[in-house]
Write a structure and sequence with these properties.
CATH class: Alpha Beta
CATH architecture: 3-Layer(aba) Sandwich
Oligomer: single chain
Order of helices and strands: HEEHEEEHE
Largest sheet: 4 strands, mixed
Radius of gyration: 21 Å
Strand content: 35-45%
Number of strands: 6
Helix content: 25-40%
Distance between the termini: 62 Å
CATH topology: Trna Endonuclease, Chain: A, domain 1
Length: about 120
Amino acid sequence: MTETLSPQQYRELQFQIPKRMKYRNVKTVIDNITFDSKKEAAYYSKLKLLLKSGDVISFERQVRYHIIIDKIKVCTYIADFVVTWKTSGVKVIDVKGMKTPIYNLKKKLMKAVLGITIFEV
């Protein structure tokens, strides 16, 4: 004899399988800040140490750059970090696991339109 479940009972028995991130990154929390990947969180920790040592003067996270051509906003690039180094000045840093075609285009636009070079780690 088989027992049948109602649709409601079946839904109650089902469990949610957590979705996997598209590029298999793992969100990580440090200092109550949620980072998109372990690699980005590790770079943040490194910057904090460099800040204490004096090699880094300051840094900011998630800095937005609006790319505007002929008074039309084309896109927005969000830098992972903007770091002011003691010796080499300000650098825009992107912590990359995988370079997507959209990222490659935005990197070129940042250089062509704003004259800003993105450094990848």
